[in-house]
């Protein structure tokens, strides 16, 4: 049993060694690869490479350290006085280029942080998403149901005047008098009416049960 465990450990070390060779060694003189950030009391651990994906961002300038003299906490993490809730998605965006949000996370909150950290591509993505959402909310029309009724000229006024229940007159199509078997003076019309349907299953299901009780 001991020998097995030993072999396993050696294999593990081999694998770890392999993984390290994939990373291109940093040129001499660059700072450490890993960076700790203390955002509003929550510590995030990431790499310099991730933070510098967006060259113009505050985070890239921060970890290069030339321009910004940022305070650090006792562990050496850069202190950033921002909301840590929204920092997670920001950091993940820099890691893999996708915006992933929990369902209860406000896009406005992320936008605010993206603008603070000056991450251009992320700002554009969020603004697009917010516009798309506004667009779908305002552009969803109620469902329309159409009916085509056939009637003669003399019945038209009566039919239009007695239309009820939200039915609306849409279009009149003159189909001539060919259906009237020799009665030439009666013109036939197809009358198109429509009704807007809002989804309210409750009202539909409750009506029959009331009638049943009565």
TrEMBL record:
GO BP field: positive regulation of cilium assembly; proteasome-mediated ubiquitin-dependent protein catabolic process; protein homooligomerization
CDD domains: BTB_POZ_KCTD17
Record-linked SMART domains: BTB (SM00225)
GO MF annotation: an example: cullin family protein binding
Domain of life: Eukaryota
InterPro entries on file: BTB/POZ_dom (IPR000210), SKP1/BTB/POZ_sf (IPR011333), T1-type_BTB (IPR003131)
A single GO cellular-component term on record: cytoplasm
Domain BTB: 33-134
Protein name listed in UniProt: KCD17 protein
Organism of provenance: Pomatostomus ruficeps (Chestnut-crowned babbler)
Gene name of the record: Kctd17
């Amino acid at each position: 049993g001991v020998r097995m465990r030993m072999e396993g450990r050696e294999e593990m070390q081999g694998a770890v060694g392999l993984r390290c060779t994939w990373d291109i060694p940093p040129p001499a003189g660059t700072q450490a690869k890993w960076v700790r950030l203390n955002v509003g009391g929550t510590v995030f651990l990431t790499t310099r490479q991730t933070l510098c994906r967006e060259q113009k961002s505050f985070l890239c300038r921060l970890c290069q350290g030339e321009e910004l003299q940022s305070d650090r906490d006792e562990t050496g993490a850069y202190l950033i006085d921002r909301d840590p809730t929204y920092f997670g998605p920001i950091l993940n965006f820099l890691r893999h280029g996708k915006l992933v949000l929990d369902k209860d996370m406000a896009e406005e909150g992320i936008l605010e942080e993206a603008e603070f950290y000056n991450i251009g591509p992320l700002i554009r993505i969020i603004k697009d998403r917010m516009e798309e959402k506004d667009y779908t909310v305002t552009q969803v029309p109620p469902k329309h149901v159409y009916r085509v009724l056939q009637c003669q000229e003399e019945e038209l006024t009566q039919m239009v005047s007695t239309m009820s229940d939200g039915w609306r007159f849409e279009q009149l199509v003159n189909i001539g008098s060919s259906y009237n078997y020799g009665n030439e003076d009666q013109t036939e019309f197809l009358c198109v009416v429509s009704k807007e349907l809002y989804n309210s299953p409750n009202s539909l299901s409750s009506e029959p049960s009331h009638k049943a009780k009565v």
